[in-house]
Amino acid sequence: MAIFSDQLRQGADFGPGDEDWIHLLVGDWQLIADLAFADLVLWFPVPEGTYKALAHVRPSTSHTVFHTDFVGERIRKDLKPLVESAWQSQDIVRSDTGLVSPGEHSMLIEAVPLVRNGRTLAVLSVHFDLSGSRLPSRLELTYRQCAEDLLRMCTRGLWPDFATPTGSRRGAPRVGDGFIRLDADAVVQYASPNAVSAYRRLGAAAALEGVSLSEATMALVKDRRMTDEALPLVVSGKMPWRTEVESMGVTLSLRAIPLRNAKGRYGALVLCRDVSELRRREKELVSKDATIREIHHRVKNNLQTVAALLRMQSRRMKSEEGRAGLDQAMRRVATIAAVHETLSQGLGDNVDFDELIDRQFRMIVEIASPGQRVKTQKTGAFGQLPAELATPLSLVINELVTNAVEHGLAERDGTVQLEAERKRNAVGEDVLLVAISDDGVGLPEGPPSEGLGLQIVRTLVTSELSGNIHWEDRTGKGTRVVIELPVAARR
Fold first, then answer.
1. 179 & 46 share domain
2. CB atoms within 10 A of CB 312
3. Domain residues for 467?
4. CA distances from residue 448 to 183, 306, 393, 411, 479 in whole angstroms, order as listed
5. pTM as predicted
6. What is the pLDDT of residues 31-43, one digit of tens each?
7. How far from 338 is each of 169, 261, 279, CA to CA, in Å?
8. Of 194, 335, 188, which is closest to residue 272 (Cα–Cα)?
9. In terms of C-beta distances under 8 Å and separation of at least 24 residues, what long-range contacts does 192-195 make, across chains too?
């Protein structure tokens, strides 16, 4: 998401990579909010001499202290001195007493400057709820200590690390899924109950605390040849990467966050999540995708076989009328086969119809005009069309182009043009306009004769495409057929 407007960006003292670093922080600060059981707010100075809230995150491990969204608003007067002090001192500043939020929550607030290369870039305010009176558990104390470590790293520009993966977070482990803290030697200092359960499902028999996570994890890997090369570096806490480990039919997603200070790495956090069911479903989808592709491929092969049989039968026909009928059937089957060939190459809901029809348009004209010199022109673009429209629209264009060559040009040389335009109609609906025109003899007197081809066209346009079709005289000479069909509802 965009955090900084052009106005704020122009007034910021940013060096190379500073804005990207803040965006990286906001993309990953849910981790700190969950560990601290606190709301985080990002503040940035504005020309009016105050601070503006640019982003806000709520914890998923506790309730929020802010039930209303105040992103874009100016800072409260009682909070401004704290944020200003953190900005100037470049160190964490804490409130002396519990402040009261607009929702009447008693809070302890920390102002954490985001410092990089000696420059303060922004300030995080961390809002801890003091309304609870119970003693915190060991898990909560460990979580909060780790949050403090990460916030301290933010004041030195050490976290987030640009080596942290920024791709898809699908299956990424979260704090509540499983949490492990390591010392500098990768020995487990604390493992949450969910982390222990995840490792036991993986095959670990003993408790995790007091043992090397690297050794315990690698001992569970049966086939080292299939192991991700990043695994040893992740489970030892040396690199801020993500990886997966699989054993006994269970797959764990692991993420490491090294803890560093001015002297170097002094520990690490490792998050783990059982993604076995997620990976199983992904494998099923991959298998289904491959099956669908294979089905389309086989349908295409079968249709091509039918077309070849029709061609053979056509050559044996003595009747010209029968041969012409078989040739037309062969052409229609080949058109459907071409659509299935396109569908077998992708599994999206939409089809690049221009790629499909460009090849088919030239082929139709060549087949329909063996003794003529017919040029083809295509203007406009169909764009991405729903897969269910591809076959009927291809057949309609096939019939109309063939009709333009055979009857419109009437065995003369000429040009057949295919036009496509996406637009909105009078009532604001997205429609596709398709026009096939020729520079031939023009429309006959009275309505066009309803042969089998035109009957197929009318049926497909009205029933399959939910559109309408009409014939008109082309400007100059010739005939123009226009089809209008809705496309918005099928995207």
1. no
2. 11
3. 348-491
4. 85, 31, 21, 18, 11
5. 0.63
6. 999 999 999 999 9
7. 38, 62, 34
8. 194
9. 192/139, 193/139, 195/272
